[in-house]
Amino acid sequence: MNNKVPKIILAIETSCDETAAAVLSVAGPSPRPSPRGRGGKGLLMIKTLSSVIKSQIKLHSKMGGVVPEVAARAHVKNILPVVKKALADAKYLISNIQYLAVTQGPGLIPSLIVGVEFAKALSFATKKAIIPVNHMLGHLYSPFGKISNIQYPNISLVVSGGHTMLVLVKNTKDYKVLGQTVDDAAGEAFDKVAKLLKLPYPGGPEVSKLAEKGNPMAINFPRPMINAKNYNFSFSGLKTAVLYYVQSLDTNNLALSTRQDICASFQQAAVDVLVTKTLRAAKEFKAKSVSLSGGVSANKLLRKSLIVNCKLLKVKFMAPPMNLCTDNAEMIGMAAAFMLHNGYKPKSYKTIKADSNLEL
Questions:
Q1: Which conformational region is residue 225 in: left (phi greater than 0), alpha (psi within -120 to 50 degrees), or beta?
Q2: Domain annotation covers residue 167
Q3: Which of 90, 111, 174, 289 is an S-S bond match for 170, by CB 3.0 to 4.6 Å?
């Protein structure tokens, strides 16, 4: 990639229930060795020119959760208008775009297919190079795009509705998954607890909202695998503990204060596990920075706990702005920019397929 002239990337994201497109301008010097674990001057200059997200929350709230076939049909309806608006907002024509980026996986296969096949058709019609992006890589890079001096090694906690993992990032090209969930992801546990308490969809933010007024010490819920000698996570047992506790009560007359205490105690248990394992990894691998990303990175308690503990540990803390926590195309464009920066060669659209189980 010629680093002197900015390159324009059109990014598309349809991994779940958000139809999203973004246009980014990317420029920067060639990568150079980073002295003393710092990012140095090899960082990209990434500017977001537009970002459009068409939410399906109202559609799926009627059913209490995402229905893959319904989500896919909504993507088919929304994707062309969303892409057109992203281009119009950025004041660019498709002819001005150098690269197309699209989420290849993981995610819901019906949703992924819509985005991938749209991008492939656009690549065929316009002869634009296409970059298939791992959705989790988008989350991983989302805190990095606006940081001028990233310090490595970095410990990245990626936590969302479908995934929970700790990643050791030595630089933007060299990373290793240290551990991940063996059952439910943290965000999935939040959503399931919300259903147990009959909270509206999407459940995770509702749990956090009630938790703000509850007592986190009211109920001693378990902290699964918090002392395990690895970096894997498990939230199924915690969710089940909440289930048993709720079943022991009169769910038809559950007081608001009781719901608040349940949410606060559950949230505290989940956050304790996430923070404890992240800090342990930071100490073991002598991290100079810790980053947080994914949908659950919007959780106030999780952010605050990591900020406080990173200060005590004297390591830099990074997290994306709130608009980059949930699924969006801007982070997919950022990931594509880092991939190009690290020498990735775009593939032929003929070789790209949606992969719901794509691993980082």
A1: left
A2: yes
A3: 174
